[in-house]
Amino acid sequence: MKIMYSLAGLLLGFSSLFGASYNVDVSHTNVAFKVKHMMVSTVGGEFEEFSGTFELDDKSGLLTKLQGEIEVDSINTNIEDRDAHLKSSEILDAEKYPKITFVLEKTKGDKAYGKLTIKDVTKDVVLDYEFGGTIVDPMGKKRAGFTLTGSIDRRDYNVKWNRILEAGGVAVSEKVKLEISVEGIATK
């Protein structure tokens, strides 16, 4: 019996040496954004349907792989008319481009480098990366968490709709802040 426990401990030790693979836990993950409105306030929203997987080097806390997919039609700003406009062909065109994707290329220190695809455009992005840690939950499942934050220029992704204000400025800022908090459950 002692040999079995020793062997199991050795195998677990080797698996943690190489890291682990995780599925994104949707119920404990938030994919949010913020944008200036009318040049005076900031409004935000989130996507409610998404999926993803990631791999993590447990020793360094760095992501080694991340693939995420967001359902555009799940956008929620708590204003139905605004959500419908964001989904329309004027802005995100959810019918023609139903998914937003992100694929990690590498992490280096506190930066995550990857490719973000919105509509028909894929661009390199650099996001701030913060590792939250790993833990074994009360059900014995290994969990890990991290955040990705940064901003993009929506015009780079053919999201160009706007209105010029009589008082000067525009209705919606070109800069969109991204705030993504991820929790994952180990697959092994």
Structure overview:
It is a single chain. By secondary structure, the protein is mostly beta strands. The protein has one domain: Lipocalin, CATH 2.40.128. Helix content is 13%, strand content 54%. The protein has an eight-stranded antiparallel barrel with strand order 1-4-5-7-8-9-10-11. The longest helix has 17 residues, at 2-18. Residues 1-17 have low confidence and may be disordered.
**CATH superfamily name?**
Lipid/polyisoprenoid-binding, YceI-like
Share in β-strands:
over 45%
CATH class: Mainly Beta
Q: Label the CATH architecture.
A: Beta Barrel
- Silhouette: globular
- Number of domains in the coordinates? 1
CATH topology: Lipocalin
Number of strands: 11
The residue ranges in which pLDDT falls below 50 over 5 or more consecutive positions are 1-17
Strand order of the largest sheet: 1-4-5-7-8-9-10-11
Structural class: mainly beta
The end-to-end distance, rounded to whole angstroms, is 23 Å
Topology (SSEs and partners):
Layout: H1 2-18, E1 20-24, E2 30-37, E3 41-47, E4 50-57, E5 62-71, E6 75-76, H2 80-87, E7 99-108, E8 111-118, E9 121-136, E10 142-153, E11 172-186
Antiparallel strand pairs: 1-4, 1-11, 2-3, 2-11, 3-6, 4-5, 5-7, 7-8, 8-9, 9-10, 10-11
